[in-house]
Design goal:
Number of helices of chain B: 7
Helix content of chain B: 25-40%
CATH class of chain A: Alpha Beta
Structural class of chain A: alpha+beta
Shape of chain A: globular
Number of domains of chain A: 1
CATH topology of chain B: Glutamine Phosphoribosylpyrophosphate, subunit 1, domain 1
Oligomer: heterodimer
Number of strands of chain B: 13
Structural class of chain B: alpha+beta
């Protein structure tokens, strides 16, 4: 009679977490930085069509790193949840906290119950009406939610990038300064990223109802001066 | 409410009405009998040199009574299009809300705009979906107008209650005062008008409709309520300000006095 192997739950969880972390570390990173008029999102992404950053709702943006098909599935679920809530109640009732909780539920559920965890890290960013009114919810592959201030870094090499960003960040940055600081932090000391290596977008209070706006390569090039 | 999460083979795609049905929030057809609801009235739209202009009066009526003086029946659908609705106000407003949401939903899910023709078809399906209610008197007949960024021109679409979609070349009018407004515009219409001329002609059409049709409201200087007039060009939707409309209607009034 064969006996099934016993594997300790600690070991199962550790293996899954390692697997997810490895998958995420293979991809390129992204940062979200608060600036005076909102939140700037900058991702290292050579593709001009496969997006890491996108709009969820009037004042909410989504960003994902890791496996594209998995975070894109989460992005679409977020758009649906937000549009349904806004339709059912009011546009004012859609908030990032609710979405972040729902994302955490899904990621946590998949992490413990499915064959393989999702190899993604996502960010739900929201801006309010005042200059210091913003939310950055950073959600990990296992459903851990972190409510971050000032900036968020997602993806491989996050610690080093956060260290660099921590040095350059100030509370009074303009959009151009935020994008420049984010780009420099992503690139590190030995690489200089140009507009064609980046995908950038903003949640900007001055953009009217829909605050999400993509920055074109030309706009990013002008900001970076290259 | 849980986040809607679908398996790949089971995904409703970028359609918001499909999503509503999938999660059990789709609208059901009910027998409305002979209920009296507010009705929205005259709307016009026409092409001009840079795109299209849309205009609609502000009155909603229930039988002989004016039920609203400030109703907005010409609304922006998305950046490059607008929709104007005549008919039963309740279903019309719901249709506009769903239509706006569907265009935005598609844009966000797919990451690109629907083509103008695609938007016109979407509205066609919504009007057809309203057919059971229309059979009981809840008729909704929209005008859809927008700037086609691929063809670089303004385009107009009109609908019948069955969802039939017809593209118009020059102008279109709908609602109870459409006969009067349409005739004024038909006579005054010229190829490639300037935006000021097109706005003035649309206002004149509404003026004459309000003059002859009790369900159409005229400019209300007393309360500062003017028709909603908007242009849609390559720069997008632009509402004409009330100050501008006040001068346009003042000119029309002077012309009428001088007759």
């Amino acid at each position: 009679m064969t006996m099934p192997y016993y594997v300790a739950p600690e070991q199962v969880m550790k293996d899954r977490a390692d697997y997810a972390r490895k998958g995420i570390a293979r991809g390129r990173a992204m940062v979200a930085v608060r600036y005076s008029e909102g939140v700037a999102l900058v991702a290292e992404n050579p593709s001009n069509t496969l997006r890491k950053i996108s709009e969820i709702y009037d004042r909410i943006a989504f960003a994902g790193v890791g496996k594209y098909n998995e975070f894109d599935q989460l992005r679409v679920a977020g758009v649906r949840a937000a549009d349904l809530k806004g339709y059912q109640y009011s546009r004012d009732d859609v908030d990032a906290r609710g979405l972040a909780n729902q994302y955490a539920q899904i990621l946590g559920q998949v992490f413990t119950h499915e064959m393989k965890p999702m190899e993604v890290e996502i960010l739900v960013a929201e801006i309010g009406y005042g200059s210091d009114d913003y939310q950055l919810f950073h959600i990990l592959y296992d459903g851990t939610v972190m409510d971050e201030r000032r900036f968020s870094v997602l993806g491989g090499d996050a610690e080093a990038i956060a260290g660099r960003l921590n040095e350059s960040y100030t509370d009074t940055m303009s959009l151009a300064e935020a994008v420049t600081a984010g780009t420099a932090a992503l690139g590190g000391t030995d690489r200089t990223l140009g507009s064609e290596d980046l995908e950038a977008a903003v949640l900007d209070r001055s953009s009217g109802r829909r605050c999400f706006k993509r920055l074109t390569d030309a706009e990013v090039a002008e900001i970076l001066g290259r | 409410m849980a986040m809607p999460f679908f398996k790949p083979g089971d995904d409703p795609g970028s359609s918001f009405p499909d999503l509503l049905r999938r999660i059990g929030m789709g609208s059901e057809s009910v027998d409305m009998g002979d209920v009296a609801v507010p009705h929205a009235t005259t709307c016009v739209a026409m092409r001009y040199a840079d795109g299209v202009v849309m205009a609609g009066d502000r009155r909603a009526t229930s039988g002989n009574l004016i039920s609203h003086r400030g109703m907005e029946k010409v609304v922006q659908a998305d950046h490059f299009s607008g929709v104007a609705i005549a008919g039963a106000a309740g279903p019309a407003m719901e249709m506009i809300k769903l239509f706006q949401l569907q265009l935005e939903h598609y844009e966000k899910v797919e990451g690109s705009f629907l083509s103008l023709e695609g938007k016109a078809n979407q509205l066609s399906m919504m009007v057809r979906g309203n057919l059971p209610a229309a059979m009981q008197g809840m008729v909704v007949v929209p005008i859809f107008a927008g700037y086609d960024v691929r063809r670089k021109t303004g385009r107009l679409f009109t609908y019948d209650v069955t969802g039939g979609r017809y593209e118009e070349q020059d102008y279109v009018a709908t609602g109870s005062g459409s006969l009067h407004a349409g005739t004024v515009i038909k006579i005054g219409y010229r190829e490639a008008m300037t935006s000021d001329d097109a706005i003035a002609l649309a206002c004149k059409g509404l003026w004459e409709a309000a003059d002859a049709d009790s369900a159409t409201g005229g400019p209300d200087a007393l309360r500062g309520i003017y028709p909603i007039v908007a242009t849609i060009t390559s720069a997008g939707w632009q509402r004409v300000t009330d100050d501008h409309l006040a001068t346009v209607f003042e000119e029309i009034a002077m012309e009428v006095r001088a007759r």
